């Protein structure tokens, strides 16, 4: 499923609205230590529904908002959008282009949007889980995660493969149906 663009505004070190375009094939992001490479992958996980501030190296979710620097005022909100080309219908959504946005204000108010319409966090998660990608899946492997996967228990590892294969969504639905 082609991810075509990432727009980061006020998230972590991205004080100004920054657009990153992805071509077909592999995209490499290079830069010196502390220049914001990990912040980019964190922005992607965040918009996909990450709910742990700790896994984004903060103590509160509001910590993702640009905190200001010597020359710049702190931002009053953070906003990240992922833009997908959905002409082949790989995302279970009717439109040819799917824009997933997450926004957080200093007040702590948090909002998710799909194609500019307000949705719930679970709608965003379901959209990605359906396609075999989620913010916890093997689609995004952060620093230290390789060791964690190799050292995990077989059941945990199985769950990762199930998610990658796109079957975890059906399993979750089945569990929900059992409870009802
Ligand atoms: P490395 O090569 O060492 O892994 P990196 O390119 O991955 O570095 P990041 O960890 O993405 O770098 O960026 C770290 C920078 O982001 C630090 O300078 C830190 O001060 C800055 N940063 C993190 N959160 C915020 C925030 N809320 N506001 C402003 N700057 C922030
Ligand atoms: Mg890094």
TrEMBL record:
<feature type="binding site">
    <location>
        <begin position="32"/>
        <end position="39"/>
    </location>
    <ligand>
        <name>ATP</name>
    </ligand>
</feature>
<protein>
    <recommendedName>
        <fullName>Chromosome partition protein Smc</fullName>
    </recommendedName>
</protein>
<comment type="similarity">
    <text>Belongs to the SMC family.</text>
</comment>
<comment type="subunit">
    <text>Homodimer.</text>
</comment>
<comment type="function">
    <text>Required for chromosome condensation and partitioning.</text>
</comment>
């Amino acid at each position: 499923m082609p991810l075509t663009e990432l727009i980061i505004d006020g998230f972590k070190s991205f004080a100004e609205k920054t657009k990153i375009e992805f071509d077909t094939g592999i995209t490499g992001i290079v830069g010196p230590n502390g220049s914001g490479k990990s912040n980019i992958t964190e922005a992607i996980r965040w918009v996909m529904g990450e709910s742990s501030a700790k896994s984004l190296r903060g103590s509160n979710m509001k910590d993702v908002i640009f905190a200001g620097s010597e020359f710049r005022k702190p931002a009053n909100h953070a906003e990240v959008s992922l833009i997908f080309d959905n002409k082949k219908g790989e995302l279970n959504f009717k439109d040819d282009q799917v824009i997933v946005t997450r926004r957080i204000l200093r007040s702590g108010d948090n909002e998710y949007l799909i194609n500019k319409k307000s949705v719930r966090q679970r709608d965003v998660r379901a959209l990605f889980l359906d396609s075999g990608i989620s913010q916890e899946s093997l689609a995004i492997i952060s620093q230290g995660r390789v060791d964690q996967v190799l050292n995990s228990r077989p059941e945990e590892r199985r769950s990762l493969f199930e998610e990658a294969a796109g079957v975890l969504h059906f399993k979750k639905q089945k569990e929900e149906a059992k409870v009802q």
